[in-house]
Amino acid sequence: MRLLLSIVIVPLLAACGTTTSMEPTVDASTPRGPTTETPAPDPSDGVPAFPEKTTRQFAENSGEWDLVLTDVRVAEREGFDRIVLEFTGTGLPGWAVSYVDEAVLDGSGEVVTLAGDAILDIYASGTTWPGSEGDYYSGPRQFEPESSGDVDDVFVAGTFEGYTQVLAGIDGAPVPFRVFALTDPSRLVVDIGDESTH
Predict the structure, then answer these.
(1) All structural domains of the chain
(2) How far apart are CA 161 and CA 65, in angstroms?
(3) Residue-wise pLDDT tens digits, 170-183
(4) Rounded Cα distance, 151 and 197, in Å
(5) Potential cystine with 118: which of 14, 102, 105, 174 (Cβ 3.0-4.6 Å)?
(6) How far apart are CA 185 and CA 196, in angstroms?
């Protein structure tokens, strides 16, 4: 009897409402790796430690879905390279970051050419378009950072259905990376470890 009730109730519950996936649109043939949460913060500096593996990292955004991309910058630090996506708005970005086989733009499916040996696909969630066009990121769509260590090339794909995508071409084989968000202003930070330190 319980089995019969389960067979009847489950389809009824599914029919009562639909769910919309907030995941980025990614070709099913693209390897994404397992979902992993960001490592616990390192108490010495307040940011996560570098994981040992290079698998996909994911975290939910918080607050309003009102983040508007205003800047993308890259800098070389001691032991790692840092990519920062900066936003206006009150929310805190979530993320889905992973190495992929090719640089594919979300939405259009267009493949872009990036310098580098590995490609890091960066999505920030909780993002949207501004009320006026002048408030959105106005920098170059593709650029080679001047002082970036192993980050050879960056492509700012834009915002689509609540996600902002940035692709980065990395010199060398995939290495561990860490991802975290900062406030005042809202930022998504991706640190790519130097190959020599892993």
Answers:
(1) 49-197 (2.60.40.3500)
(2) 11
(3) 999 999 999 999 99
(4) 16
(5) 174
(6) 32
Q: Phi and psi dihedrals of 127, rounded to 5?
A: -110, 160
pLDDT digits (tens, 9 = 90+) for 34-53: 334 444 333 335 688 999 99
Q: Quick count: other Cβ atoms within 10 Å of Cβ 28?
A: 5
| Structure token digits, residue 152 | 């050879």
Q: Tokens 């500096």, residue?
A: 45
Tokens of 26: 């990614």
**CA-CA-CA-CA torsion for 189, 192, 194, 197, nearest 10 degrees?**
90
H or E stretch at 12: helix 2-16
Provide the residue type at 108 as one letter: S
Amino acid code (one letter) for 48:
P
Q: How many residues are listed for the chain in this entry?
A: 198
Helix (H) / strand (E) element for 10: namely helix 2-16
57 and 37 Cβ atoms separated by less than 8 Å: yes
CB 72 within 8 A of CB 113: no
Averaged confidence pLDDT in the chain: 81
